[in-house]
Amino acid sequence: MRILDVKSVLGKDTLVGKSQAEQDLPQLERAVMEGPPGETIVWDWSRIRIVTASYLLKTCVQLFKRTLSGELDKFFVMSGMNDNSAAELKLVLEAESLVMLVAEGAKGKRVESPSPWGKLDQSYAEAFAEAARQGMVSAGALHQSSKSKRGPGIGKTAWINRLSNLYQARLLRRKKIGREFVYELPV
Question: Phi and psi (nearest 5°) for 85?
Fold first, then answer.
């Protein structure tokens, strides 16, 4: 996990508009590309006074879309946004039908209260909550757990699909252990 202090990268605390975003995108892209593939980047917005929706759309959201397409192998977490910046991010996520991980803050190697922002179907929200609660989950373990709690309930294939889709959305990290995939939060 690497913390990317947005103010340190850009040298300013007011980030507004599409034209400024287009000018700043190369700096942010270089900062994102510095680390190894598969790393988690915590975008620290705590020292940014103002960031607009148009700026977010043309910078970090544009880079985030590259992670979704598979072009960029990174996990993003937005962190430390003030109320106005958070409202701008919510607008962009809703308009673009995206879901991102957002945390209250980050210190050292820990982030505080990461949660998905944007429109997330209830079934995916439940799978995400289980991964967050347990730390590491597999479809098989979730299937066994749901059978014991609710009777036949949710099939193993449904759990596989939910976890795979959360991985595709870059909300969970995936690794293979033995014959199955296990999933965990990227932070």
Answer: -65, -40
Q: Which residue has the higher pLDDT, 142 or 53?
A: 53
Write 157-165 long-range contacts (CB < 8 A, 24+). 158/123, 159/127, 162/123, 162/124, 162/126, 162/127, 163/127, 163/131, 163/137, 163/138, 163/139, 165/124
Tens digit of pLDDT for each residue in 98-107? 999 999 877 7
Q: Are 163 and 183 in contact (CB under 8 A)?
A: yes
The domain locations on the chain are 2-118, 122-184
CATH class of 122-184: mainly alpha
Model pLDDT, residue 107: 75
